[in-house]
Amino acid sequence: MNQAIAQTQLKHGRVISPASRGAVAIDLGLLGGWQVNEMEGGKNFPALAAGPFPQPFDTDADSVAPPADGYILSGGKTDARDCVNYTHAEMSTKLARPFTWPLLNVDPGQTFKVSWVYTAPHTTRGYRWLITKDGWDPQQRITRAQLEAAPFFEDFYPQVPYYSHADELKAKVDHEVKLPANKKGHHVIVLMWIVANTGNAFYQAFDVDFK
């Protein structure tokens, strides 16, 4: 890749620990880091339509259209980044060998810590965490119907309006969440980094195995 092009594409941010689906795709040579940094889509997810962010944050920039079902894990991206939405079977076809998404071993109710690298600063509203329902089907792509209706955690800065507090609304390099206490087996976690001054969030996904 041309170095000048590479520099223009190094932006936004991604989780570097633990391994997300994007990180696995980088290791497999399917994606570059810049592509995983830019898995951004509408921040109103799981809403279906663009529009104002809910109160008390309705003075934030309006959301663009959130990702469509089947393209959630890539933030709605349908180019090469679509691979993070793939089922085991789709990935096996892509790689021409048997494949299953690697699982992060977790305990119900444990603290789940993530670390990010950011390549462009954004005024941050916060973070939203979602997880698959009990009985979800890993042979199907992730849809809204595959996810619990409500986030299991939200970590939002309270300061409004964002343009009066931009210096305080910083993206978090390290943060953590308490995982649900009632899950067993393989689940997918969706983490959104929600930006206050644009219509987007950045999407990261993790495959976990609750012991």
UniProtKB/TrEMBL annotation:
PANTHER family cross-referenced by the UniProt entry: CHITIN-BINDING TYPE-4 DOMAIN-CONTAINING PROTEIN, GLCNAC-BINDING PROTEIN A
Domain of life: Bacteria
Alphabetical UniProt keywords: Monooxygenase, Oxidoreductase, Signal
Example of a GO MF term: monooxygenase activity
Database matches in SUPFAM superfamilies: E set domains (SSF81296)
Organism this protein belongs to: Pseudomonas hamedanensis
Domain Chitin-binding type-4: 12-208
Full protein name: Lytic polysaccharide monooxygenase
UniProt entry tagged with the keyword Methyltransferase: no
Pfam family, one: LPMO_10
